[in-house]
Specification:
The structure is a single chain. The chain has about 100 residues and is an all-alpha fold. The model has no long low-confidence stretch (mean pLDDT about 85). It has a domain of about 60 residues. The longest helix has 27 residues.
Length: about 100
């Protein structure tokens, strides 16, 4: 009987641990515009790395590569300029620096 009670308690504890709601389920809603722009900048950089890799692998013609690269670089410059303007006005990121 004690073994069944222990198993039941373990199962109940596991379900409580897995399905218990967080204290603040809206944590991600606190992102600032700087956080969003920082994430967008990282995505653009990743796209540039992928584009370079695929061009070097021969998957892109040079004209298409140059057009895509210029487009991504222009978007990155725009995102960085907006980030710098917001930071200069005192807006900070809520994300922890890694």
């Amino acid at each position: 009987m004690g073994l069944i009670a222990a198993i039941f308690a373990l199962i109940l504890g596991s379900f409580a641990y897995i399905f218990w709601p967080e204290r603040n389920p809206f944590v991600q809603a606190d992102k600032t515009r700087v956080d969003y722009l920082s994430e967008r900048k990282e995505a653009i950089y990743e796209n540039l790395r992928d584009l370079n890799f695929e061009f070097q692998a021969g998957k892109y013609p040079e004209a298409d590569y140059n057009e895509q690269r210029k487009s991504l670089e222009a978007e990155a410059a725009q995102v960085i300029a907006e980030m710098e303007a917001l930071i200069a006005r005192g807006m900070k990121s809520t994300r922890a620096r890694t």
